[in-house]
Amino acid sequence: MRCICLKCQSPAKNLSALNLTSLVKKPFLIILLCAGLIHVINLQAQDVEGLIQDSKTKKPLAFVNIVYTSWGQGTVSNIDGEFSVSSSRDIEFLKFSFVGYHTKYISLAEIIPGKKILVKLIHKTYDIEEVKVLPGVNPAHRIIHLATENRKLNNPEKMQSFSYTSYSKMYFTLDIDSLKAKSSSRSGDTDAFLEVRTETSPADSTDVSEKDDLEEIEDFLEDNHLFLMEFVSERGFMHPDKNSEVVTASRVSGFKDPSFTMLATQIQSFSFYDDLLMLWDRKYLNPISRGSTRKYLFIIEDTTYTEQHDSLFVISYRPLKGKNFDGLEGILHINSNGYAIQNVIAEASETKGIFRVRIQQKYEHIDNQQWFPVQLNTDIMISPEEAKVNGQPMTLVGVGKSYLSDIKLNPEFKRRNFNHIEVEVEDDAHKKNDAYWDQYRVNPLTRKDTNTYRLIDSLGEEAKLDRSLKILETFASGYIPAGYFNIDYKSLIHWNQYEGFRLGIALETSDKISRWIHIGGKVAYGTRDKDLKYGSHLKVNLNRRRDAFLKLTYNKDVVESAGWRFVEKPPITSSEVFRSFLIANKDKIEEKSVEMQFPALRYIKLNTYLNQNVRQVTTDYRYQVSTPEGVEQTDRFKITEAGIMLKYAYKEKFLETPRGNRLSLGTNYPIIYANLHVGLPIFGGDYEYTKVEGKITKTFISKSMGDTKLALVGGWTDRSLPYPILYAGAGSYGVFTIETENSFATMRLNEFVSDRFSSIHFQQDFGKLLFKWEKFQPGIVLAASAGYGTIRADSRHINMEQNTLEKGYYESGILFNNLLRHSILGYGLGVFYRLGPYTLPKTIDNFAFKFTMRFNL
């Protein structure tokens, strides 16, 4: 549609250009002219405001380009799809353009003064792969290179310090494919707007169908969200990585407990300038990073001029065809003032998976000094394959918005203002009144919001959701709450090659009896070894917040012979936990111990202990000892041991829940574990010795090569000792078994023994970088391990082959993860081969075949 618009400088000037005599003879033209003049005068006296939506989904469109002069001056809609053009501007027309949508024009005659405009843009249907990259210099690359070069200047986290207050709101609802389109008359949100339609924007039409089984759900979702939460937080930052965020107010539908609000702070990166950007739990290559023009296709979609007379470049981006990497797609608005990001839309280009996240960020030039995010939007789509309603696929949709205010640049901070707790919640956060909330809410609660709080809060009280959340948090720490007791669910059933199925129960008293003192016990039975195990403990919490406690323990159980452990077990998401299934050689042990754990320094967790135990081997191994009666062979060993076990994780950060439980946010630095064990000739101990063990782990994240994982492990004793307190190789061989990282896949369990050893385990996880098809996306991992060990010659060992690793043990392998996906789990296959001096005579015996299991969100 072609629009011809009259630009009026002033009523007097326009009248002087007319022949008044002729107009007097034409009263109709006079009336028409006066009406037009009144319309223009009214329009110039008021700002032009409105809302821009997708014509089909009715969702607001952020960062739509709006041009209102013939020379390209304009603005953009905000992150909520709203726009406003100042009355002081010379508005000639309104032109709305957005990537992926048909451009729309509105003339002055179509605008009613004082009435907000509802603009509906129609989505284009086109094949994204039709875009051809032609030879020559892409003009978008110059802008991307300038934006990349200016990252340090424009990144707020490169400043000396800053602080701000944020108000965040997130709700969840259902998006069911078969839900009927809602008529605009039921939405209740368009009454205040004038809907403008042109030939390029036909009125939406919806098929009216009979009510079906889903209409009841539709009616509910029309008036209520499934879930709603709000929170206010105050954040302080000091370069390079000191962070402190305190949630001062929290409201969660159905809950008084504010724990959910803490998770919302971790969904997306704060700014869009790091080489790798976090969305949910995945990291993606930033299109504003060095070398990104070789990975991404950039297209200049539009160029406008801001009201400050700066150029605003609208650039779309997506991974180049044939490039395999974890990439994003979306739109960048680059402002020529510092070539900084003014607006950004981003989502993963990969559409597979249960979770999908789409983010929007808006930046402003604060105090004419620094570009700073002022609003962060997050859309979450959760689509379990099995989730259906009446046979129709169902998607859970979350919409979150965070508004930043009270932004201060370079405030005075001291190091003592920060600690290792990065996010915490004030005790009275859930008790803030309406007056407090009204200070921070950008918009009042809607009718749907109020209905949700009223309904879900009442349901929450009836269903005791706070109690359920407490149970869930307890479950995450390894226990099932059961009234006055917490049951260790890992103790109920387990399997390993020595015990077969281990059936039992371990429990301890809950906080209902005492928050500071816990009494526990356990009992278990193995179906293969046909032996009963039991134990008890008394635990005194010295400081729950800092995970400090004193514990007295008695155990009669079994442990891996010649094994070792560190102060923390591997996380449940690590395949290292599967090695416990393969252990076939265990010692019977009866032990009494006292231990105390506490944080010694800022990043150190320290566990000290004194242990008296009797170990009995379950094989035909014997050790010669001298007694008053002469030399004897024994299979029982009395040991008294004192020791220290520590973990050092430099700059490890934590979330702290209202109940004091801490969730690690990890660290970018290597994690160091160290043990010192000293055998003492007291309390019946027969062996004096010193043992030292260590482990260092680190994951290096690359923009183009995936994740590189390294683990260094070593142990040392100062003398020859009985086999149970030496070091067996960390083997995990089976003809076809589950893969366990940080172990030797081709080494038989207990095949080698050392009193001094070292090993290195390497994995290069390419993810989907090497192979990526639409329906088949295996993750490729290259793995290699090497080990070295020695043992002192000792004739006192009976029935023990003193196989050592002094020639060096080597193996390599390849894993194909995610060959098959089901829900959040991916299954794959792998193969390893034994190399070097310890290669076995039969070629097939050097192979180890594995199946893999990975968590995929």
Detailed description of the structure:
The protein is mainly β and 857 residues long. The protein folds into three domains: 11-121, Immunoglobulin-like; 140-180 and 228-463, no CATH class; 544-855, Porin (Beta Barrel), CATH 2.40.160. The strands form seven sheets. The protein has a 19-stranded mixed β-sheet that branches. Strands 8, 10, 11, 14, 15, 16, 17, 18, 19, 20, 21, 22, 35 and 36 form a 14-stranded mixed β-sheet that branches. A four-stranded mixed β-sheet has the order 4-1-7-9, with no helix packed on it. The chain is elongated and about 115 Å long.
The helicity comes to 10-25%
Going by CATH, the architecture of the largest domain would be Beta Barrel
Residue stretches low in confidence (pLDDT < 50, at least 5 long) are 1-45, 180-195, 197-211
Structural class: mainly beta
**What Rg do the Cα atoms give?**
34 Å
Number of helices: 11
The third-level CATH topology of the largest domain is: Porin
**Largest pleated sheet:** 19 strands, mixed
Shape: elongated
Average residue-wise pLDDT: 83
| DSSP strand count | 48
Distance between the ends: 47 Å
Counted up, domains total 3
How much of the polypeptide forms β-strand, as a percent range? over 45%
CATH class of the largest domain: Mainly Beta
